[in-house]
Each structure stands twice: as C-alpha cells, then as structure tokens.
Design goal:
The protein has helices spanning 7-15, 31-42, 71-81, 91-94, 113-116, 120-135, 147-159, 189-194, 197-210, 215-228; strands at residues 2-4, 20-25, 46-51, 85-87, 139-143, 165-169, 232-240, 254-262, 265-273. The chain is of the alpha/beta class and 274 residues long. The protein folds into 2 domains: 2-169, 3-Layer(aba) Sandwich (Rossmann fold); 182-268, Pantoate--beta-alanine Ligase, Chain: A,domain 2 (2-Layer Sandwich). A 6-stranded parallel sheet has the order 1-4-3-2-5-6, with helices on both faces. Helix 7 links the parallel strand 5 and strand 6 (165-169). The structure holds adenosine monophosphate.
C-alpha cells in the first residue's frame, strides 16, 4: 500500500493506477469504512482511500479537536483490506493560504443536518470536490449511514458535471442493530445498551408506515419512544430519498431519517420505506 502525504507523492502514485475506487474517510476506521473498500474491490476497481479530519465540516462547538485519531491502526486496517493507495493530506495542503473558494450545494443540504449543523455540508462538499480532483477515481464510495451526505455529494457531482460515479454502500451495523460509527466509543455502557433502540424504533415505524398507518401519528409515537429510551431526537422524518424534502405519505423513493442525541453522541440512522 502506498502512503502519500504530499501532493507530489500523491501524483506519482496516482499516475501508476488506473480505474480506481475511492473511499474518503476521517479515520478511526471500523467495519463500516472497510465495507466501502470491499465494495470498490468487488466492483473490479483498485481501492484507494483518504484519511483527513476535515476542519471545515465541524461547527465551532463540535468535536474537531477531540475527533478520534488512530493513524497507525487505520493504515494497518486499510492495508489488510487491500487498499492500494492512501492519501493523508495536511490541512495546509487542502486549504491553501488565501483560499477563497468553497462549494455550496443547496437542495438536499437545506434541512435536517443542514439546519442543525450550519455550514457542515459546505465543508463536506468542498473537501469532497477537492479529494475527487486529487484522486480522479472512476467511482467514489459513500456510506448510506450518512444518507443526506450521499444525496448532497450526488447532487454536487451531477451539477458540476464531475466525471465520477458515486456509489452508495448499505449501513454496516453492530449485531444489535446500532449503526457502526467512530463516535460510538464515547457512549457509556448504559448509553451503549440504549443506543440500538434508535434502529428498533425506526424499523417499527417503517413497518407501521408501510402497513398504511398515518405518518404523522407514527412519527409522533416514535419520537415519544426515543425519549422514553433516554434520547433527545433532533429530527425524525419521512422524506423524499433524494431531495430530502419532508413527505406526509410514503411515495417512493422515500426514506425514514433520524438523528437523536444520547449522552455525548448524536446517533444518525435511516431506513428505506416502501
Ligand atoms: P467518516 O469517516 O465518518 O467521514 O465516514 C467515511 C465514510 O464511511 C462515509 O461515506 C460514511 O458514510 C461511511 N460510513 C461510516 N459509518 C458507516 C457504516 N456504519 N456503514 C457504512 N458506511 C459507513
């Protein structure tokens, strides 16, 4: 596995590879990330990845400085997974002095995470645009765990006519249903025991909506159930799967999306409806 830390090293390594499948990450890798590498491999592409804790997608009161970092462990996992090239840029490389350009995607970034974390998707879209230009992959792999992010990235790629295919990969879960996340390590044992209730409540809500129960009543019951499990829901909504606009009845493609705070962690999850 080639490890590139400067643009010159990246360029030398990159020109030797063709038909790559790129997975951008912020490190602290787990099986969810590795599923994206595996999907690249399965698509017959040479897997590449980046590790960059992108400062511009964190709000001023968020956990940028405390975000988990484990470079040696991450590199070992990527090597083991068959990754051919990993890009480890510095913040100075990604954000040159005097930088005056950013990418703002309206549409799917308007609501939900976009409202709760102002500027978050500008940071995501900007860094992903730069990484795609640096890595020049045939396909880039993103986790459905961050459903809204996938839709924002897809919109950006379509709007900027970028020559890359965005491939969503299903959420990898713990045995009890909790979506794997780098931040789950901050849950206390009591919170960790309560956390799978987000998925359980959402699955039950999808079942009820699919059997024809009134959506608003299902969502209200689900919010109450989450609160009963010690969570503070930021949102729980039935939305159009691509533009993320709220729906009051399922009309495919639709998605149930949720974010709920549990102790120090915001849990995110989403499920297909219909
Ligand atoms: P992150 O390092 O959190 O920025 O995530 C990097 C990529 O891994 C994103 O495309 C995430 O959606 C994806 N990812 C994170 N957790 C999971 C998971 N549990 N299942 C599938 N993909 C995931």
């Amino acid at each position: 596995m080639i490890i590139a830390r400067t643009l010159a090293e990246l360029e030398t390594a990159r020109t030797r590879l063709d038909q790559t499948g790129f997975t951008p990450t912020m490190g602290a890798l787990h099986e969810g990330h590795l599923a994206l590498i595996a999907a690249a491999k399965q698509a017959g592409l040479t897997p590449t990845a980046s590790i960059f804790v992108n400062p511009t997608q964190f709000g001023p009161n968020e956990d940028f400085s405390r975000y988990p970092r484990d470079e040696a462990g991450d590199l070992a996992k990527l090597e083991q997974a068959g990754c051919a090239l990993v890009w480890l840029p510095s913040a100075e490389t990604m954000y040159p002095d005097q930088a005056a350009t950013s990418v703002r995607v309206a549409g799917p970034s308007r609501l939900w995470e976009g409202t709760i974390r102002p500027g978050h998707f500008d940071g995501v879209a900007t860094v992903v645009a730069k990484l795609l230009g640096q890595m020049r992959p045939a396909c880039a792999f993103f986790g459905e765990k961050d459903w809204q992010q996938v839709q924002v990235v897809r919109r950006m790629v379509a709007d900027l006519l970028l020559p890359v295919r965005i491939v969503p990969v299903p959420t990898v879960r713990e045995a009890d249903g909790l979506a794997k996340s780098s931040r789950n390590r901050y849950l206390s044992s009591q919170e960790r025991a309560a956390a799978p209730n987000l998925f359980a409540v959402m699955r039950e809500t999808v079942r009820r909506i699919e059997t024809g129960d009134a959506v608003e009543a299902c969502l209200a019951a689900a919010r109450a159930a989450l609160i009963g499990h010690g969570m503070v829901p930021d949102y729980l909504a039935l939305v159009h799967a691509e533009n993320l606009e709220p729906l009051d009845a399922p009309s495919p493609p639709s998605r149930l999306i949720a974010a709920a705070r549990l102790g120090p962690v915001r849990l995110l999850d989403n499920l297909a409806v219909g």
